[in-house]
Structures are given as structure tokens and as C-alpha cells.
Specification:
Layout lengths: L4 E4 L15 H13 L3 E3 L12 E7 L5 H11 L4 E4 L23 H9 L3 E4 L12 H19 L5 E3 L5 E2 H9 L4 E3 L18 E2 L6 H9 L2 H16 L3 H7 L10 E2 L4
Parallel strand pairs: 1-3, 1-9, 2-3, 3-4, 4-5, 6-8
Antiparallel strand pairs: 7-10
Helix pairs in contact: 1-2, 1-6, 4-5
The structure holds zinc ion (ZN).
Length: 265
């Protein structure tokens, strides 16, 4: 049976060019629709690949200030999730997000301790929020080690889950992450998790500002043709959402089945 991981970023109101910022009323709609049907959100490290147990994963990338509202809403439903933190920007504004209309603030360590205390898993999202595939493998390893050490020092945890910044990953990177002790790695490939997926290359359904509860339900329990339609729709949005990655590295990655894959969300 398939499992499902949703990828959120900021959940905020106000004018925004970025497709990844979800308005609060949409977020509450998602929770209400899924909760009413009995779905329960769990952390990535709690997901049992292949189980059909009525659970799905909520993941939130970047740990923006709006995460505190997300955690509070999840608590109301008895849910929890996984947040992926770019450790070099903890407590700072997202100056790395050069394509954004407005810059968001990242949570500080004290706030992240609150999130962990609420039962959320804290995962690695690089240190500098650069695409790991743009670096030599040794530098990518150093980046992940640096992020992990910061979390161990500030939160007292050894992170075992990793979200590749911009979803950029290669087979070599995934193998390196596994050798470092990461047990789960998530990408931005818009798809459900099948039993045959490597735990270090788990796809996620990105959630965009225009997504309704019906869109999320189509991914969770829609007919196969409906899921295919969602995949195609999400890939189209991703093709138009590569601004930050392109400005940061000068690269334009087209989604493909090549060794290096980039799924921007
Ligand atoms: Zn990110």
C-alpha cells in the first residue's frame, strides 16, 4: 500500500508571489477535510512504509515563524509532523530566498525547542540552504555534518531525517546520507510513497497556495487517473517555480529521471 508525505513551507496570509506560501484559511481547510475523514498526521520517522493505517506525514520545510501556528493547529487534531531546518539561518531572515517577494523569518533555537517539545521531529535541511548537488560530495557531507552538529548542540538530538534543499539529490548523495546515519531522505518528486522507494529517496506531494482540500484528497485516496492528473499539475507548477534555485546557482534543472534530480517546491 502507498503512503503519503505532504510538503508545506510557509503558512501565512498576505500578498505573495511564491506558490509555496499557503494562506491560513487553506491550511485550516486541509486539516478539517482530512481530519473529518479520519486521516491522522504522523512524523516521517513514524511512517511505516507499506502500511495502510490511515496515516499520512506532514512535513514543513525551512522552519519559518508560521510553523508555530501549524504546530498549534496540528495539536488540536492530535497530529504531529516533521520540520526540516536550514541550521545556518536559525533566528535569521530568509536572505537565501532571493526570489521571494517578501522575506520570512526563520524560527530561533528556543522556538525550535518548543516545536520539539510538542512532539515534532526536527530534521536536517542543509546548513546554508544550497542545493547539495551543486557541491563536491565532500563539501555536501560537510554541510550535512555541520547542520547535524548544530542540532545536537542546540537541541540535544541526533537528526535522522533529511530534506534535500530544493529537492536536489543524486544517487551518490542519498548513499552518502545513509552512510552518515540518516534513515529517511525526502525529495520534491510529486508522488505517493511506494514500498519499493528507497527510504533515502522518498517522494513528497508539495502543497501550493492554490491547493484545496479536494486536491489533497485526490492524492491520498483518488482514483489512479486522478493521482496522475495531480502529478502532472504539480510538475507544471514546479517548472514555473525555480526562481530561487536558478538565481542561487545559475542552473535550471528540468525534471527527469537522470542521475541528478531536482524537484523544486
Ligand atoms: Zn527549503
Amino acid at each position: 500500500m502507498a503512503q503519503h508525505i505532504f510538503a508545506y513551507h510557509a503558512v501565512e496570509d498576505g500578498f505573495e508571489l511564491s506558490a509555496t506560501t499557503v494562506p491560513r484559511r487553506r491550511w485550516r481547510e486541509h486539516c478539517r477535510v482530512l481530519s473529518d475523514l479520519g486521516w491522522r498526521a504522523v512524523r516521517v520517522d513514524e511512517m511505516i512504509q507499506g502500511a495502510d493505517d490511515g496515516t499520512f506525514c506532514i512535513t514543513v520545510d525551512d522552519a519559518y515563524a508560521s510553523l508555530l501556528d501549524v504546530v498549534a493547529t496540528c495539536e488540536c487534531h492530535g497530529w504531529r509532523g516533521t520540520v526540516f531546518v536550514p541550521t545556518g539561518y536559525v533566528g535569521k531572515v530568509a536572505s537565501w530566498d532571493v526570489g521571494a517577494w517578501r522575506t520570512h523569518r526563520h524560527l530561533n533555537w528556543e522556538e525550535l525547542r518548543e516545536v520539539a517539545a510538542a512532539g515534532w521531529e526536527i530534521g536536517v535541511h542543509g546548513h546554508t540552504h544550497t542545493a547539495l548537488t551543486d557541491k563536491p560530495i565532500a563539501a555536501a557531507r560537510q554541510e550535512l555534518q555541520c547542520a547535524r552538529s548544530a542540532m545536537e548542540q542546540e537541541l540535544g538530538i541526533v537528526a535522522t531525517s533529511l530534506a534535500y534543499p530544493f529537492g536536489a539529490v543524486s544517487k551518490a548523495l542519498a548513499e552518502m546520507a545513509q552512510a552518515m546515519g540518516f534513515r529517511h531522505g525526502v525529495t520534491m518528486e510529486p508522488s505517493q510513497v511506494e514500498e519499493w522507494h528507497s527510504p533515502l529517496l522518498l517522494p513528497r506531494w508539495p502543497v501550493y497556495r492554490m491547493d484545496t482540500g479536494a486536491h489533497l484528497l485526490a492524492r491520498l485516496c483518488g482514483a489512479p487517473w486522478l493521482k496522475q492528473l495531480e502529478r502532472a499539475r504539480l510538475r507544471t507548477i514546479q517548472r514555473f517555480s525555480q526562481g530561487t534555485r536558478v538565481r542561487m546557482s545559475g542552473k535550471m534543472n528540468i525534471i527527469s529521471d537522470a542521475a541528478e534530480q531536482t524537484y523544486v517546491g
